[in-house]
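FW: tagging you since you asked about this chain on Friday. Here's the raw sequence from the shared folder, copied in full. Didn't touch anything.
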Amino acid sequence: MKTIISSLIPIALAALLLPSCVATDPAAGGAAVKRYPLNTCIVTDNELGSMGDVITKTYGSQEVKFCCKPCIRKFEADPAKFLAKLPR
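HL: got it, structure written out here
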């Protein structure tokens, strides 16, 4: 009995954690949103959190994180340039 319970615990934990690995964006019709994979700002390459609270936005199906508000304006002026930094 202990063996069955101990083998079910990892499965139960995985089932609870898996939905948090893939977010959905209501604006994208509920499509899966790709998590931001970097620990740095997509614009300045500063460590996230080094300039205050991290700002998270979703562009299409990609989550993007910024170190500060001015970086959002820079990103929105040429999103393709910065999104190219993300691994495919």
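FW: The radius of gyration is 17 Å.
HL: agreed, and Confidence is low (pLDDT under 50) at residues 12-25.
FW: great, closing this out.
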